[in-house]
TrEMBL record, chains A, B:
Domain named Saccharopine dehydrogenase-like C-terminal: residues: 145-394
Species annotation: Klenkia marina
SUPFAM superfamilies referenced in this protein's UniProt entry, alphabetically: NAD(P)-binding Rossmann-fold domains
Residue ranges occupied by any Saccharopine dehydrogenase NADP binding domain in the UniProt entry: 3-140
InterPro entries: NAD(P)-bd_dom_sf, Sacchrp_dh-like_C, Sacchrp_dh_NADP-bd
Top-level taxon of origin: Bacteria
Official protein name in the record: Saccharopine dehydrogenase, NADP-dependent
Length: 403, 403
C-alpha cells in the first residue's frame, strides 16, 4: 500500500506518527498547503518509507490526482478540513485509488426552515456519487476518524453482538481536558468545531426520518467514564446521525457533544457577531474570512499537548433490547489520556484519538480484512477485527453496562 | 469661528447636522480618512458654510495642521476614534487653534497589577502637555461629548447648586434600544466599546486615589428614568473618573455602564478568543487587526437608526449632603428617544446624544461664555449656561430627586 496523506496539521502529523510503527504500507507521501509543514511531518518520524511531496492546494483535484500518479499511490488519506472533501474525493475517484476521510462533505441548511428540516445533509454530495465508486470497484471509506469512525464501529458492534433491537444510538463525546496558561484554548480545530456546533443539529428517527433542531438543543448531563465525570452535552450536527441509519437498524440516532457551558457561550457570541462566517469581509482594504481570523487568534491545538492535562472520551450510548429479550443499555467508549498520548507519541489526546482510527482501518484494508466497493461508512464493515486491532495498538476500548 | 471637523462617521455627521441649525460659526470644513464620506457629510446639510477637505490621515499631525492653515480654521473638532487623539491634539496645539474631543488619550494597563493599580490613565498624555496649552493661551476642551461631557457638566452643577458635600459621583448609562432584524447590533462604535469595557475599570476614592478592578466589576441594577427601567450596570473604564476629581470635590467617582448580560457575555467571549486585540494577526498571508474584523462583521451603528426603537439615557447619580445639611441623592440625566432624533435630525439617538454636546460647547466658546487656557474638562467651566443652551436646542435634561 502506498498512501498519499493530504494534510499535515494536527491530525495528519499524528496519523504519520502512529502509522510509522506499523508495517502494513510500503510508502507514505505527505503533502499540505504549507510545503514546509509536509516536509517536517515526513521527516519527524525518521522512517524511510515516508517522504514529502511538498505543497499542494487540496481544493485542486487535478493537482492532487497528479500527485497520486506521480507517487504511484493507491490510497488517498484526507486529513484536511472538510471544505476540501469534494475535490479530494473526486481526485481519488479519478485516480483509481481508495479514499479515506474523517469528516464528510458539508451540509447546507434548509433555506426556509433550517431549524426543523434538513437541506443538503452531511455526506449527501459524496453518497450521490456512490454509483460511480461501485461501478469502478473502488472503495471510499468515509467518516473514518474517531467520531465519526470509531463511534460507527461501536454501532455495528452493538447491533451484531449486544442487541436484538436498538431504540437509540446516542453518540456522547466529552472530556476534562485543561490547557495551562490559556483562558480559552480549544483542543480541536476551531474551524471544524464552529461548523459542527453552529449548523442546525440533525437527528434521525425511524418514524420521522432526518430532521433538524436549533443549535445547542436538548441539553443533558452525561456521566463520562474513567474519572472524567459529568459534562453538559447538547445536540450537534455530526456524520454519525447520517451514517448509522444506512447500515444499522435503530429507532433514533443522535449526537451530543460535551461542549460545556463556557464553550457554548463563546460559540453563541461568535455567531451573534457574525464571526463564524466563512465568506470574506473587507477590513481596511483586505479581504478575510472571519472564521479564519478566529482560528488565527487562537493557539494551534496541535501544539498545546504539553500544556494539556486530562482525558478525552468518545463513545456510543446504546439503549434497546438485549439478545436475551431484556431491556439493555450500554456505553461503548474509548478514552485517551493526554499524558499517555504525549509520552507515547508526542501528540495530544484529541488529535491522536482521531488519527489512530484511519490507521487501523487502512491496516485492515491492506490485509484484505476490510474490503468493498462504493461509498461506505465504518458501520458497513465488520467491527470485531477493527476493535481487536485498536486494542493491539495499545489503546483499548471499554463497555459500561447500564449506559 | 471656523471649525475643522475631523471624522465624518456617525458622530461626526450628526455633529454637522446639529451645527447646521446654529449661527455661531462661519465655516465648517469636514475631513475623514474616507474622502467620499467627508464630501457626503458636508453636502448632506445643504448649507454653504459647509465644505469638504476630502481625505486625511488623522494619525498624521502635519497633514492635519496643514488643513487647519489652508482653511484658516480656529477650532479642531475631533470626531474620530480615540487612537487618533494625540496626533490631533498635537496638530491643534501646533496650529494655534482651540481643540475639542469627546474621548481622551488611551490608557495602558499597569504591567504587573492591571486589575488593582492604574498604569497610564485615560488623558494622562494630554494632561502632561497642559503647560504648553496654558503657555500658548490656547484651550483644549477634552471629553466634551455626552459621557464624558454632559456627565461632567452635571458634576459641576451638583457641586455648585445642589450639594454642600458629595459622597459619590456615579455616572450611570443605560438604554432600552432594540434593533429590528439583528441578533446583535451595538448602537455605538464596537471598537470603542471593546476598549472601554475590556480595559480594567478605574475608580477614584479620595482616601485611596485612583485604582482599578477586574473588568465588569461591582454589578448593580440601576433604575433608568422615562420608561427605560432597570438595567444591569458594571464598572467600565471611562474619562469621567479621571476628569471629575480634578475640579469637583467628591469622596468617590465611578462609571457604570448598562451593558446588559447579553452584551457582557459577547465581550467576554471576544476577549477569551483574543478578538479584542488590536495588534495584527496573519491570516492566510494578510495582516489584519482582530478588533477591526469584529467591527467589519457588524452593521455600522450610524446606519441602524431607522431600525432602532427605544431611548438612551446618560446621567449622573450624586449622593451626599444637600445645601440644607440633610442627606441628598439625585440623578441628573439626559434622555434621547431614537424616534425623535431620527425624525428631527435623521441621526440615531446614541450618536446624536454624543454629538449635540460639543456643538453646545462650541457655541458657548464662540460667544465667549466659556473661555480658558490649558487642558480643561467640562467640569472646569460654568454648568448653567451649558444646560440652558442644551434645553434651547430642544433636548432638555432632567433631575430625579432621591437618586
Amino acid at each position: 500500500m502506498r498512501i498519499l496523506l493530504v494534510g499535515a496539521g494536527g491530525v495528519g502529523s499524528a496519523f504519520a506518527a502512529i502509522a510509522a510503527r506499523r508495517g502494513f504500507f510500503e510508502a507514505l507521501v505527505v503533502t499540505d498547503y504549507d510545503g514546509a509543514r509536509a516536509d517536517a511531518t515526513a521527516s519527524a518520524v525518521g522512517d524511510d518509507r515516508f517522504s514529502s511531496a511538498g505543497s499542494v492546494d487540496a481544493g485542486d483535484a487535478d493537482a492532487v490526482a497528479a500527485l497520486l500518479a506521480e507517487h504511484r499511490c493507491d490510497v488517498l488519506m484526507n486529513a484536511v478540513d472538510p471544505r476540501f472533501v469534494m475535490p479530494l474525493f473526486r481526485a481519488a475517484l479519478a485516480g483509481g485509488v481508495t479514499y479515506v476521510d474523517m469528516a464528510m462533505s458539508l451540509s447546507h441548511p434548509h433555506p426556509e426552515r433550517p431549524h426543523s428540516e434538513t437541506g443538503v445533509k452531511l455526506g449527501d454530495e459524496q453518497f450521490a456519487m456512490a454509483g460511480e465508486w461501485e461501478a469502478a470497484g473502488q472503495l471510499a471509506l468515509v467518516g473514518m476518524g474517531v467520531e465519526p469512525g470509531l463511534s460507527d464501529v461501536f454501532a455495528r458492534y452493538a447491533a451484531d453482538h449486544l442487541f436484538s433491537a436498538i431504540d437509540e444510538l446516542g453518540v456522547r463525546d466529552g472530556a476534562n481536558l485543561e490547557v495551562e496558561g490559556y483562558d480559552f484554548a480549544p483542543s480541536f480545530s476551531i474551524w471544524t468545531t464552529i461548523e459542527e456546533c453552529l449548523n442546525p443539529p440533525v437527528v434521525y428517527e425511524k418514524a420521522r426520518g432526518f430532521f433538524t433542531t436549533p443549535p445547542f438543543s436538548e441539553p443533558e448531563v452525561f456521566e463520562f467514564p474513567e474519572g472524567i465525570g459529568p459534562v453538559e452535552c447538547v445536540n450537534v450536527e455530526h456524520e454519525e446521525v447520517l451514517l448509522m441509519p444506512r447500515w444499522v437498524d435503530a429507532g433514533r440516532v443522535t449526537f451530543k457533544y460535551g461542549l460545556g457551558t463556557e464553550f457554548i457561550d463563546v460559540l453563541k457570541a461568535l455567531h451573534k457577531v457574525g464571526l463564524d462566517r466563512t465568506d470574506p469581509v473587507t477590513v481596511k482594504g483586505v479581504q478575510v474570512s472571519p472564521r479564519d481570523v478566529v482560528a488565527a487568534c487562537l493557539p494551534d491545538p496541535a501544539r498545546l499537548g504539553d500544556r494539556m492535562t486530562g482525558k478525552t472520551c468518545a463513545g456510543l450510548w446504546v439503549t434497546g433490547t438485549g439478545k436475551d429479550g431484556e431491556p439493555r443499555q450500554v456505553y461503548l467508549y474509548h478514552v485517551v489520556d493526554n499524558e499517555w498520548s504525549m509520552r507515547e507519541y508526542g501528540h495530544q489526546a484529541v488529535v491522536w484519538q482521531t488519527a489512530v482510527n484511519p490507521v487501523v482501518a487502512l491496516e485492515l484494508v491492506a490485509a484484505g480484512t476490510w474490503a468493498g466497493a462504493g461509498v461506505l461508512g465504518p458501520e458497513a464493515l465488520d467491527s470485531v477485527p477493527f476493535l481487536d486491532l485498536l486494542t493491539e495498538y495499545g489503546s483499548p476500548w471499554g463497555m459500561r453496562e447500564g449506559g
